[in-house]
User: Fold this.
Amino acid sequence: MGAILVTGGAGYIGSHTAKLLIKKGYDVVVYDNLEYGHREVLKYLPGAKFVQGDIGDGNLVANTIHDHQIDSVIHFAAYASVPESVADPIKYYQNNIVKTLTLLDALKAKGVKHVLFSSSAATFGETQYVPIDEKHPQFPTNPYGQTKLDGEHILHWYDVAFGIKSISLRYFCAAGADPEGELGEDHTPEAHMIPLTLLTALGRRPDIKIFGTDYPTHDGTGVRDYIHVNDLGEAHILGLEALKNGADTTAYNLGNGKGYSVREVIETGRKVTGVNFTATEAPRRPGDPAELVASSAKIEKELGWKPKYGDLPTIMRTAYEWFEKHPNGFAGE
Assistant:
């Protein structure tokens, strides 16, 4: 059995997935340029090899595959901020498309045939019905979602032309932290709802912003399907094992099947932390859909995936415990 290359493996979802892979006995190579990843996570990934590099460096990717006998790749190394992608689409096309093509060409050259692709619910755009299944039309409303959809299309044609099989996982809002308290979410700048809410409760931010109160939802604020980061990691491993057992190229949606509004996240944060922090209303952000809630029926049926941390208070509690233990994030270690 060859090793698994985890691009972006020093980042949030990548590091949690790498830890789960190691627990299951896989040899793991973390490949990360540390632009957003953290070298400190490596101490929680015993036995993992680390290569500092960019996926746009085709020679380094090819040498890494050769040197570590890589047979499969889980690809997390993407930019993932919707507002930033609207403001700077060139950055997103350069990294999420051009560099991904460089990565795939290195895989093709070295005979790697299995790719797990971290896609996104942002490929769907505005919700036409809920919950969103895999047949839902895909019309992204921002460059980030467009680059993820383009990545799925590229992988389809790499299968047709070169026999590289892939599974794309479209997930909604990754949240929570390692239940063992070792790994967590540490972004600079932070743009995700749950960590921003909890950091406000901890007094590290003056308030939490509610971007948009006039959406066509039950309370006027955006609705999202939050999924625990470890549940995401388990889904990536199930997908990887399916590919190794001969599965065809496909895509799955991942979520808990229940949406929570921004106001509901804030209220849950107040209950979990016991702090009545300030929330401030602000205008909508460009590119944000009103509602994203997933149907995971396909992956549950075909791969047996079931979320273990399915309720919002549990998800937020794991994140809060990590933030309490790591007041300066990984930089404090």
In short: The mean pLDDT is 95. The radius of gyration is 19 Å.
